[in-house]
Predict the structure.
Amino acid sequence: MSPPDPARFRSAMAMLPTGVTVVSAARPDGPAGATANAVCSLSIEPMLMLAALDRGSRTLLAVQAANHFGVSVLHAGQEQIARSFATKAPVAEKWDGVAWSERSGIPAIDGALVWIACELRDVVAAGDHVIVTGEVRDLATGEGEPLVFHGGRYRPLG
């Protein structure tokens, strides 16, 4: 049996609702960040997070160089931020107009539903992506409804 074609696989996976996050890292010339929906908690003991970033991602390079990364879980009103960080625009351009602050040496999107700081632990090649795991070092929570990606669209949970 031959595997399904990539377009069919992508369409099937679009039916799996996922939270929308921005994975970020500090660079000498400013923050880097990319929208990611392949992000999850991995372990409680020790507290670990997992994120998958495109193999060619500039944010991946920043994460590896900084040896840490942040995860900002976006709320339903932050769709434009998700769209901006999903582009291949110049790194600095993605941050234009985005309120952010540095927490624990890592860029955090202000007003995010959750923000988690991680120390880089593992980097694992996986197809056209790279899986990074990180040990949780800090976190902050806010209030609101999460932004969800489902059926190829951003939508509020409700």
In short: The chain has a mean pLDDT of 95. The chain has one domain: 6-156. The first helix runs from residue 6 to 13.
